[in-house]
User: Fold this.
Amino acid sequence: MRRFLLLALVFSFAAMAFSASIPKDTVVIGMNTGIFISFDPAVCYEVEPAIMVMNIYSGLFKLQEINGTIQAVPELAESYDISQDGKTWTFHIRKGVSFANGDPVNADAVVYSVKRVLQLKKSPVWLFESLGLNANNMNETVKKIDDYTVQITMDKSYAPNIVMSIFAESWGGIVDPKVAQSHDVSGDMGSAYLADHSAGAGPYILKSWQRNNMIVLVANDKYWRGAPRIKTIIIRDMPESTDQQLALKRGDIDIAWNLTPEQVNSLKGDPNFNVVSVPAQSNEYLAVNAGWGPFKDVRVRQAVKYAIDYDSIIKNIAGGYAIKVQGFIPYGYLGYVSDMPFDQNISKAKELLAQAGYANGFEVELVTNTTERRRNEAIAIQADLAKIGIKANITIMQASQMYTKMREQGIQMIIAGWGIDFPDPDALAKPFADYRVKQLAWRMMWYDDHAADLAEAAGFELNQTKRVEIYKELTNYWFDNGPFAILYQPLSYWGTRAELKGFDQTAKGYSLAFDLTKMYK
Amino acid sequence: MKLGSYILKRSLLMLLVMFGVLAIVFAIVHVIPADPVGALLGGNAPPDVVERMKEQLGLNKPLFDQFVNYVWGVVHGNLGNSIQSGRPVIRDIEEYFPVTLQLSIASIIISIFFGIFLGIFSAIYRNRWIDHFSRIFSILGVSMPVFWTGLILLLIFYYILGWLPGTGQLSLFIIPPEKITGMILVDSLLEGNWEAFWDGLRHLILPAAVLGYAATASIARITRASMLDVLNQDYIRTARAKGMPKRIVIYRHALKNALIPVITIIGLTFGGLLEGAVLTETVFGLPGLGRYIVNALLVLDYPAIMGGTLFIALVYSLVNLSVDLIYAVLDPRMRV
Amino acid sequence: MTLTEKISDFIEKRKPILEDWKHTFFLWKRTKLAIIGTVIVIVFVLVAIIGPFLIPYDPLSQNMSERLQPPSLRHFFGTDQFGRDIFSRVISGAMIEVEIIIIVSIISGGIGLILGVIAGYFGGAIDEILMRATDMFLAFPSLILAMAFAAMLGPSLINTIIAISLVGWTVFARLARAEAMKVKTQPYIEAIKALGASKTRIISIHVTPMCVSPVLVQLTLRMGTVILTAASLGFLGLGVRPPLPEWGAMVSDGRSFLLDQWWISTFPGIAIAIVVLGFNLLGDGLRDIMDPRLRR
Assistant:
């Protein structure tokens, strides 16, 4: 009797060993979702939830990669006019569009959504505030003209590309006012509800979110551009990259989001898998504190730039998933400078150090965060610097500590990355060159007025050609004097199963654009 | 002393200990030279945005005020809102704890089963090869990093052999049971949802085995020592001399008495399991309290860290209290 | 007395202790597992001390052209993602583990012993306070406490050591306290007190030595746990500074390579397993030997 039961147990286990394969209208993604906070467009700021928000909500504009550059194209704003002084924008809302639940999309919804971001004052609000919109002036600056016309007034005449891009990102998603207000709890404008429910007009609806477990998106059949082909998208939380690799290979997930370069390279050549890679909208850099010790001398800063073996980092640490870029403007952007003045040149670096009086080198603390990639970069650069006599002591900090210390200007040397907030060179030039905006340049104590003036002038230059020239001048000046060494522009990459098609179209423009409607099986 | 006053005394002491735990965590967490807002907003936000958010969250008030507010809240059952999820920490705990509890219970069952088994064998065949082998086997369990064993088992049983499913609690297309206790196995049973039960069980085997294996050693060791103790007692020898078969002697007489100290060890091991769960949940992608606290520590989500740690400390203390109470009921000498 | 007479007198007085040690040694020889454990530990310590002089490669030097090589005659354990020889790194890492173990043991054993003896001997309010303090620390999941300390102090070798020490002392305090309470009631303590010995003298010379042996046994058992805690901290990103070849950090760093380049994680993992096993066997054996009921 006992033996029989044992056998029965074994058989029933074995019978269930054949897991069901994923249906054709469903895509399963394995991703580390530990940092997801909310799907409310007014709150969401991290890259991965933001791209989902962009597919759940529609905004006035949408970002798309066209011929290598990312541009804003009209979405809910069918057309727009800009006033003479360049400050006031009038948007004409597309008629006949409705939210996923049937409510109409109109000027009320647009005005409500923009004001909502300004009032809730969460992470993304500073993007709108950088255009001069805030909770105090919003009744004057954000106005409904009629049922399908909205007028928004900025405080300066910003380049149109900047304005459109800011409205195109996740925080510009239009929220259904009825749903939000009906779930208002103590004035949060439905924020607690919208953290894990959706009220948008985009191609997908957020069906459920069990934190640290699973996110389920279902297709919005009423989407005004037509219902997407993939009906269900399931995102499974898999914090370990090895888990994702195993699951992808066994066919339990269609897309592995967080593989290491070696893991994804092992998929190449296997007809069951595809590797999709696109230039990322970010860069990876090493920065030194221009107000600390030896780095005050520009020659020492240059010495560091000549000590790094950029090719080795790109090949061995990024596994080839990187574009060699040394200016702060990435590939595909206006003003991109393709000069590569820095290659590893140990003798030149040593000479520069000696000239500055540091022939015997010095000790410095190199800070970076806990991800495997950054650790590896730190180890590689430590070895490079050792070759010119600089002893770098690596300190691994959690992101929260690292950014705090950086904002206090307390870091001597750091390896980090900068994600682009909107697809315009200004979003790079200001942080990397203009200390007045209190971003990266300020954090690394590089108080250089010449660079700051150039960055600001370029931000307001309407003539494209002149703008490119200013950026070129700035970049060259920055190469010589700045405290940054750009290591590379990453290529974002994913491992997918071969049955999944169109993912390369979906990912074009990641992380500013991500169109889930383009994939199918 | 009387049982009633013993219970009262222990409970009061436990409250004191909880307060101490709270103070310690609060101190540690606020000494860390970083802030949760910085992590939330990431690298790009300018300092004034960071400052403003700090104001919003009340993080600029003097530490003492923050502590007092917090304790006041705890006494009223309010553990504050997680900075990261924005939800009440209690809700987060309510969601994540059952997973850890299920994992811990399953691991304890496995470790009790194997531990007692191995312990008995070791005691009966003392100093023979079986004894040595089973001791080495059980000690090996506490000798390997849990996250490594987990990954290797996944590699073997999921990837290479395909006998067991991968990470997560349930397969994708199984309908999960309605949430009653939050523990998938229990809820499926209550609902009669056999598919979910079997599927959940299959997902639970590897993580529970990994954790349980780590706990096996202590239980095996105590069982062995305890059995050896009892086996040498006079009344056992009398029973054998009377001609009772060895098996019955062991089951009926020795085992019962030998099991008493095992109960204490189970209480202690439970605490170890709660922390082993931290690593196991990450490797196996289980949405439990361990992972929650680790994430909270990484972004310095103060209320979540304090609430989560306090909760685990509470559970652990309660378990120990219960164990001590069982002892006190069974053995009046223990009521010191 | 002449010198020789003094020496033989010294030995005579300590004869019972020597007999005891002889008996211990005899029992130790009989316990197979304790022998295995001791051998492992001795080999481990020898490797830690002598190893770094015999390794074929510098554990820190990178060689990108040789990265991710499988085990071979040139690289016994293969190479990692920086082309570093894993065999050399494992051997060099032994010393780091020894350092961690020794320092942690001294600190937590020391704190625990002192606090426990004081609490056990003086009793009363001091005892109560200490018991509550140990309760508070024990109520903590120790990994989380270690994480919190490591996060607070910043990840580095020293801070890892401090974090682990601060978490582990409670067990030793409890043990020392129990022993001290037992010793306190012994007649010879009464006698010495009557003779006018100061409290300090009593505690340091008479009580503490009796408490040392159970603490020592427990320390040995815990040495393995120390390595595992350090490894767990490394897994969570809170361990030693790179590029130190600490075993736990090596296992953790190599885990994304587990499928295709398994040797990066596996060899340090095996090293950890063997050494921790050795300590556990040794500790177990020591405890069995010291246990008066089994000393027959």
Chain A touches chain B through 63 residues (CB under 8 Å). The CA atoms of residues 379 and 471 of chain A lie 33 Å apart.
